[in-house]
């Protein structure tokens, strides 16, 4: 892990190519221009390339559509009073946990106060303010259009209070005095999300407000070297567009996917090794633009692929590799590179994860016998004494419904972990957490996560994970019926 301690240190994102010393083909001599204009493609070929393009491009189109929707406000504020929204080049902050009824982003946690915003970094570099958080755990994530993280800002990096600049791949301006570090995105689009730990107590809700009011982002043109403040409790609320739903907002409409993709691909340069992918997809898109019958094939492919290929990716078994005891976990979250499958699965199931060295995510839909979790049953998860997730920051166990949102319940309880100061331990020092629609009993209720009467999933977070969590030598405990 690196630290942003030097003045104007530039963090460049890059892709390391595999050693090609023994390759039989010189990639520098491969024709990457795509098919010649006028080539006649069969519908079967267009269908095959279209399927790949849909899975490959789904997270990227997702990112661009979120930026359009979540920056269409006049000033930083809260959409529907529940989600931070701000114009391009700015962020907005919550002052408490995220509301359980929001449907803007799946799988949020109730351990932190969130901020959110988007940038267009070639035209408008963005300054991120970092106040003095003291001992409080915090991390600022910044992602490119592919949902790969490019920043390293947080307590675990030893980041000092100050001002940090986010720039795009083509920005060539001068970094002014007073900027402590520079981070370069691989795309002009960037998404920003500060996260600041909050204990579930009235005292901490009050104590956190002054530091939250110093978390801001704004265009470089507004930078004057002085720490700005805003009272995030007094920002305007904006209406929520569209109809309410139990599911996440549909950020990628299949019917218009291939109408959007050509322009979006022009804004996202290929990674090293992706040039041939771009040439192949663009050749088909160009042909479809001139031939309505081929465009009809692509639109049919998008509708079918969304149902048959994208929707199933909400299942946690597709989000990484086995992590032991029936759980699954990414090993490359927010650093996907050319792992298109997991990148898209993450974008579908829980968009905008922190990089795995900042936060380890472990999740499951199954109990220890391999059966799907069902709230009509009762379950327990027991951490042996001293065997809770080893972290520098905090950990939590969250329960989600079928759509990866919180289950409404009278206790208004959706997760348990470091933030909870009233958890009861067993006589031997171990900690047992319970999940199910039925209370485990008054003596255990402080450790209970209420579940719906039907399918649910559980999700274990470790912020500031120690090495044993990162490398998998620490394993999550089993989820067992009782």
Automatic annotation (TrEMBL):
Q: Name one Pfam family in it.
A: DUF1214
Q: What is this protein called?
A: DUF1254 domain-containing protein
Annotated source species = Flavobacterium frigidimaris
Q: What is the lineage of its organism?
A: Bacteria, Pseudomonadati, Bacteroidota, Flavobacteriia, Flavobacteriales
Superkingdom, taxonomy of origin:
Bacteria
Domain (DUF1254): give its ranges: 89-219
> What are the residue boundaries of the DUF1214 domain, all occurrences included?
359-467
PANTHER family per UniProt: BLL3101 PROTEIN
Gene3D superfamilies, alphabetically? Answer: Domain of unknown function DUF1214, C-terminal domain (2.60.120.600), Domain of unknown function DUF1254 (2.60.40.1610)
